[in-house]
User: Fold this.
Amino acid sequence: MKHDNRVYTTAYHPQGEGSKAIFALHGNKLYATAHHPDGESPHALYEIRGDKVHTTEHHPDHNPTSHIFELKKQL
Assistant:
């Protein structure tokens, strides 16, 4: 995530275009932008709780126990 509360793909992403934000952060929720492969979404796909990112019921692969990602600071 960059300083502008947007999430960008990286060079390691199969469709990697690091200059296009695929998610936007509003509060503690991440919403898909128009640059997301599935298009813009009015519903949050992820929710940040503490140092973990959880899928929401609007995420196509939502599973409350297995789709949790941990946030780590870049060195």
In short: The chain has no helices and six strands. The mean pLDDT is 75. The chain has one domain: 6-70. Residues 6-70 form one domain.
